[in-house]
Amino acid sequence: MTHYDGVPSASGMSVFAFAIVIYVLLVIVLDGRWWGA
Q: Among its keywords, does the record have Transmembrane (predicted)?
């Protein structure tokens, strides 16, 4: 994923981390609802 040379790697990491956080939150919410939390 080294397509962007002008874009700092920090921005890419922050976006990637943000996506992971959203995914984890969705999994937790869905898991809680499905298990009757």
A: yes
Decide if 3 contacts 12 (C-beta within 8 A): no
Q: How far apart (Å, rounded) are the C-alpha atoms in residues 33 and 13?
A: 30
Torsion angle in degrees (nearest 10) through CA of 13, 16, 21, 26 = 180
In three-state secondary structure terms, 19 is helix
Distance CA 26, CA 6 (A): 32
Q: Is the pLDDT of residue 34 over 80?
A: no
Provide the 3-class DSSP secondary structure of residue 9.
Answer: helix
